UniProtKB/TrEMBL annotation, chain B:
The lineage of its organism: Bacteria, Pseudomonadati, Thermodesulfobacteriota, Desulfovibrionia, Desulfovibrionales. It is a multi-pass membrane protein. Residues 81-271 form the ABC transmembrane type-1 domain. It is found in: Cell membrane. This is Carbohydrate ABC transporter permease. Coiled coil: none annotated. It comes from Oceanidesulfovibrio marinus. Belongs to the binding-protein-dependent transport system permease family. The chain crosses the membrane at residues 12-33, 80-104, 125-145, 151-171, 192-214, 250-271.
Length: 324, 286
């Protein structure tokens, strides 16, 4: 193995005369750079073709008044920043959708984190059937969002099982019309999301907890810390990178919230559960205001990139370096 | 530290959580085997009076449900199932193949380009709604709208960051020395990857393939906006399911939902140890 290291080294700087006692095998094939290029080329082509090009088209379009009836994209009238101005200043439906998406995100992330951490801590204990229960608790995250949305739509029906339980506990007058009240509809969306994605937090936090080194914990115990102090002062700070990664990944996903809401409420009643994605979808694909929708999409894109950038800063190196 | 056993109150908490986690799955499965009389009963029926597979049968034979005196389904789900299988499997294989090359490229030659991994990762931050709009326009101009080719193209693009980063984490776990040893034996660098790297990450490759399949199978929005009459997928069919005569066919819809989720739950259990790795782009390992 030492010899291989020497060969690797040879490429970078010429060896001192006489330093090598063996002759390296003749190189065949491509150079390092060539291989790197060949290997990453397909991925780059796909990314450019299917992500960069559409984004440039959307960016161009967002400054026009193009709609499908106007024919070619080049026939569109250039309207400058009109779409952006309209969205950011006058379109209250858009502004509310942004605020609503952020509020839903905050509610979901904090609940998912709390429940996920609670479960993960439970799973640090010893009990029978642990591996079966572990699998069972992961089930929700394996189910398609559309199916989750549909299932919860059925659960929340006025004559559905959730109302049956509510009625059983609080009497018939307490029965809830989940999809007729704007507050309850938002609550239904949050409950659905939390059910669906708490397992991800559970999974990530559990692997984080399992990786916590024993020595600092032992030291704290020897120094007289009680279990609560050990958890809050020793274990939790060591989990910080894992927690940040979990939050970043989940917030990236939840900003795009669409499938579940589409199945649950289609944004209703009124526009009370409209998320950003759902609003853009309606703009572009029911109202055919494609240029306006593109502008909205761009605002969201820039906003979410900024948000992710902010959240990611403390862990960027770890995420990029992987195991190194 | 020696793990402590669960106390009784904690056991109860765990039990309650388990009920909450499994109840929706129980409910959709029960609905799928309910006869039409039980579908929309008030109050809801928890366990079907006479379990039946008629809902599943109706999915592929729209008139089957008529024996219960209920109007048939307007559309058979055959096309959607075929569409989901075609699009998901093709896109998964392409995404994993391209991702595998990129992963080796990034993991082993990262000195060459620091930007590549970030460019690929940034694809994940775009809200689908943001790219769906230009896609529909471009695709209608080049004739890819309402075609599987177009849908597969998008699926590959959307899942590529996941396959690249997940596979990268497996390649990272492999010591470089194994490839160098193969090169000592006279293989070229590229051949060393084919003969050594790829066989050694077989398990990871399988997990990644299954994970990407889950993502593709679950995709909804692109399929929804790109499909008109030629193509369909299960999630789109589920969203669109309306009957010719009756209101909503709960049981039939539930049957399709069960059909859609069953393979994913199975595949998910197979790779449960790697789910976190996939979701977090390799940052979290189990």
């Amino acid at each position: 193995m030492h010899n291989t290291a020497a060969i690797e080294h040879r490429e970078v700087s010429p060896p001192a005369p006489g330093a090598l006692t063996i002759t390296p095998p003749a190189r065949r094939g491509l150079t390092r750079k060539g291989i790197a290029r060949v290997l990453t080329m397909p991925g780059q082509i796909v990314s450019v073709l299917v992500l960069v090009v559409p984004l440039l088209v959307a960016f161009y379009m967002s400054f026009t008044d193009w709609s499908p009836t106007r024919g070619s994209l080049f026939d569109a009238g250039f309207t400058g920043l009109f779409n952006y101005e309209e969205l950011l200043i006058y379109d209250t439906r858009f502004i509310y959708a942004v605020i609503r998406t952020l509020l839903i995100s905050i509610a979901c992330l904090s609940l998912e984190f709390t429940f996920g951490l609670g479960l993960a801590v439970l799973f640090m204990r010893k009990f029978r059937g642990k591996s079966v229960l572990f699998s069972a608790f992961l089930t929700p995250m394996m189910i398609l969002p559309v199916v989750v949305g549909y299932t919860f739509w059925m659960l929340f029906q006025s004559n559905g099982p959730i109302n049956q339980i509510v009625t059983y506990l609080f009497g018939a007058e307490a029965m809830l019309e989940w999809f007729k009240s704007s507050h309850l509809a938002v609550l239904a969306v949050i409950i659905t999301e939390v059910w669906h994605w708490t397992p991800l937090f559970f999974l990530i936090l559990l692997s984080g907890l399992n990786a916590v080194p024993e020595n600092p914990v032992r030291a704290a115990v020897i120094l007289g810390a009680n279990p609560r102090q050990v958890f809050w002062r020793v274990i939790l700070p060591m989990l910080k990178p894992v927690i940040i990664v979990a939050f970043v990944i989940r917030s990236m996903e939840i900003i795009k919230l669409f499938d579940e809401v589409f199945m649950l409420t289609r944004g209703g009643p009124g526009s009370s559960t409209e998320t950003i994605s759902l609003y853009i979808y309606k703009l572009a694909f029911s109202d055919f205001q494609l240029a306006y929708g593109a502008a909205a999409a761009f605002i969201v894109l820039v906003g979410s990139l900024l948000l992710v950038h902010l959240l990611l800063t403390p862990v960027r190196d770890e995420l990029l370096e992987g195991s190194h | 530290m020696e793990p402590k056993p669960l106390s009784l109150p904690l056991k109860l908490v765990m039990f309650a959580a388990l009920i909450i986690v499994l109840f929706p799955v129980f409910w959709i499965t029960m609905t799928a085997i309910k006869p039409p009389t039980d579908w929309n009963a008030s109050p809801a029926i928890w366990v079907p009076s006479e379990p039946t597979f008629i809902n599943f049968k109706t999915l592929f034979d729209p008139d089957a449900i008529r024996e219960y005196g209920v109007g048939g389904v307007s559309q058979s789900a055959t096309k959607a199932v075929f569409g989901s299988l075609t699009a998901s499997i093709t896109a998964t294989l392409l995404s994993v193949a391209i991702g595998l090359f990129s992963a080796i490229g990034i993991s082993r030659y990262s000195g060459s380009s620091k930007a590549t991994p970030l460019i690929i990762l940034s694809g994940r931050m775009f809200p689908p709604a943001a790219i769906a709009v230009p896609f529909v326009i471009i695709f209608s101009n080049i004739g890819l709208i309402d075609s599987y080719t177009g849908l597969i193209g998008i699926y590959v693009a959307v899942t590529l960051p996941f396959s690249t980063w997940m596979l990268k984490s497996f390649v990272d776990d492999l010591p470089r020395e194994v490839e160098e040893a193969a090169m000592i034996d006279g293989r070229s660098r590229l051949m060393a990857h084919f003969t050594v790297t790829i066989p050694l990450i077989k398990g990871g490759l399988f997990a990644t393939t299954m994970f990407i399949f889950i993502l593709n199978w679950s995709e909804f929005m692109f399929a929804l906006v790109l499909s008109y009459s030629n193509i369909s997928t299960i999630p789109v069919q589920l969203a669109k399911y309306v009957t010719a005569t009756a209101g909503t066919l709960y049981g039939v819809q539930a049957a399709l939902a069960v059909l859609a989720m069953a393979p994913l739950i199975y595949v998910g259990y197979l790779i449960q140890g790697h789910l976190a790795r996939g979701m977090t782009f390799g940052a979290i390992k189990q």
